[in-house]
Amino acid sequence: MVADITSGCTIRFGPDTAGFTEILVETAATADVGDTVVLTLANYGIVTFLAIDGYVHSTTDSIVIKEEPTTAVSSGVLTVTLTSATNKKRVYSIIGRGAK
C-alpha cells in the first residue's frame, strides 16, 4: 500500500555549515515502492534543495545498495518517492543551501 511514511521515519539534521545543511532520513524496514517522505525544507533551515543520496537495505543494517528516489519540490516542500524495493529500510541524505 502506497503511503506517506514521514511520521514513522527517524529524521536528524545538523546546523548550517558553510551555507549547507544535511538532513538524514531513516525509514522503517517496512517501506514500500511508491511510499513517500514529505519534508518542509524551511523547518530544517534549507532555502534551496540541492541533492539527495539514497540507499536501500536489501538486508536490514547489513547489505546496503545505492537507490535513486524520485524527488519533487513545490512551495518549499520536498517529496521523496521511494523506488526499487518493497518492505526494505531506506536511508537518505538530503543536502540543501541554508539562509547564510
- Number of helix segments? 0
Span of the ends, CA to CA: 40 Å
Record the strand order, biggest sheet. 1-2-8-4-5
What is the N-to-C order of secondary-structure elements (H for helix, E for strand)?
Answer: EEEEEEEE
Number of strands: 8
Shape descriptor: globular
Given the helix and strand composition, which structural class is it? mainly beta
- Low-pLDDT windows of residues: none
Question: Radius of gyration, rounded?
Answer: 13 Å
Number of domains: 1
Strand content: over 45%
Pick out its properties.
8 strands, 100 residues, 3-stranded antiparallel β-sheet, mainly beta
Task: Describe the protein's architecture and organization.
The protein has a five-stranded antiparallel sheet, with no helix packed on it. The chain has a three-stranded antiparallel sheet with strand order 3-7-6, with no helix packed on it. The protein has one domain. It has 100 residues and is mainly beta. The model has no long low-confidence stretch (mean pLDDT 92). The chain contains no helices and eight strands.
In short:
The protein is mainly beta and 100 residues long. Helix content is 0%, strand content 54%. The chain has a 5-stranded antiparallel β-sheet with strand order 1-2-8-4-5, with no helix packed on it. Strands 3-7-6 form a 3-stranded antiparallel β-sheet, with no helix packed on it.
